[in-house]
Amino acid sequence: MKIRKFNESNSKSIDPKYFNFVFDEFIDNGANSDYDLIGSEDAYWEIFIPEPRIYKNKSKEGSTLGMRCDIEEYVKNAETVSNFSKTIKSCLDRIKDDFPDTKISIDFEVENKNGEIERFLHIIFTV
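^ thats the sequence. predicted structure below, dont judge the formating
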């Protein structure tokens, strides 16, 4: 019995359903994705993934540094960022394996929402 892949036709085109499937963990957690055609044959798929928030305790001394964390918080934050990065890399590797002709560009974007800084990973896939 043959297992059917999303891209069994070996098409060089972008399959938005498959891309959504690969990044579903991020989409379920608030990432936004979009798909559109460029001309008659080319297409792009993009996703905006919020970076994990890094938490720190407010300084108890009221110093001008403003924020401070202890080693446990530092390690937890580092593990969060590491897991996030590994998951992104895994998703990108899957796309590269299944769609080798796809070009990938990554931008790091920052938004100020109500005084809070939010960072996003903007990944664009084109053929």
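The two ends are 31 Å apart (CA to CA).
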